[in-house]
Amino acid sequence: MAERVGMVGIGLMGHAFASNLIAAGFEVQGFDPVEERMTALAALGGTPVGSPAAAARGVQWVITSLPNSGIVREVALGTGGIVEGAEAGLVVIDTSTSSPQESMVTGEALAARGVGFLDASVSGTSEMAAVKDLIVVAGGSAEDFEGSRAVLAGFSREAYYLGPNGNGALAKLIINLNILAHRYALAEGLVLAEKAGIDLGRMLAILKDSAAGCKVMDQKGTKMVEAEYSPVGRLLNATKDIGLIVGQGREYESPMLLSSAIAEGFWMAGRQGYSELDGASIFEFLREMAGLPGRVAVERG
After folding, report:
1. 29-50 as b/e: b if 16+ CB within 10 A
2. What is the per-residue pLDDT for 299?
3. Handedness of CA 91, 96, 101, 105 (dihedral sign)
């Protein structure tokens, strides 16, 4: 008999997780407040349910994929939350990009209710998630991590254990710092190339072939060159992530000079109407600052 997994949050990432878990032989029951996402889960062969508590009933694992750690805490511990449906041995696997400190607090609160918690953040886009090209960086008890390996393997290509709760969330933020720094540098470089009259497509191809070549160029470079900003990951989310990263620098008294500058750039781009576009649209904002003609329509308050 197939093992069942609960899910709360069936957006772009959650949908990909559910699809891969079902393909791996798991039964998936899930909840999302957006009806269209529940319909999409049913189309995959999953079972829509009416609440986070219902998603937790009769399962050993519940995967959460949610916008922030505050929502994770409410979904886990609030009215109609996961703990209301939890049975002995349940482990919550939180794949959200969360605050490490809030992950620690949530883990402690769940432990007091007899529920395990892994802050099992994922690195990769929703497109990468669809083909299971993700890694997981997890904090929590070693026992919960080892007992969850089969589920983690159902939606990722590798999972890394990093010790207590909070460490997985922190590792994800460090990964995102590097991604966003590369993205911002690519955008600034391409703006400089355009201002100098160098063909953008040719410059991108050269960058990819040079010692500076990286995955960010593959994922975001063409979007920048073609001004195609349908969201794989919204600029709003990048702004949230870089804000969390700067906050961790303050928490640990670690210098965040570059991160602070990047955070200001993303924040300003959001204020200028780019929040709901793909994070690659930071290029369009920098073009605007450079006095280049606009190529996309944005709404400004």
Report:
1. bbbbeeeebbebbeebebebbe
2. 83
3. negative
CA distance 238 to 180: 7
What domains are defined for the chain?
A: 4-164 (3.40.50.720), 171-289 (1.10.1040.10)
Q: Is 44 helix (H, G, I), strand (E, B) or coil?
A: helix
pTM across the whole model = 0.90
Provide the strand spans (E) within the chain: 4-8, 27-31, 47-48, 61-64, 91-94, 116-123, 135-139, 158-161
- Distance CA(83)–CA(92), nearest Å, equals 10
DSSP reduced 3-state for 192: helix
Distance CA 282, CA 179 (A): 13
**Run means of pLDDT, 10 residues per run, the chain, 301 residues:** 89 95 97 96 97 97 94 95 94 94 96 96 91 97 97 98 97 96 98 98 98 95 97 91 95 96 97 96 97 91 65
Separation of alpha carbons 49 and 29, rounded Å: 7
Half-sphere exposure of 91 (CA within 13 A, CB side): 24
Nearest in space to 97 (alpha carbons), one of 204, 265, 290, 238: 238
Question: CA 184, 186, 187, 189: dihedral to nearest 10 degrees?
Answer: 120
Do the Cβ atoms of 97 and 241 come closer than 8 Å? yes
- Phi first, then psi: what are they for 124, rounded to 5°? 150, 160
What angle in degrees, to the nearest 10, is found between the helix axes of 167-195 and 257-269? 70
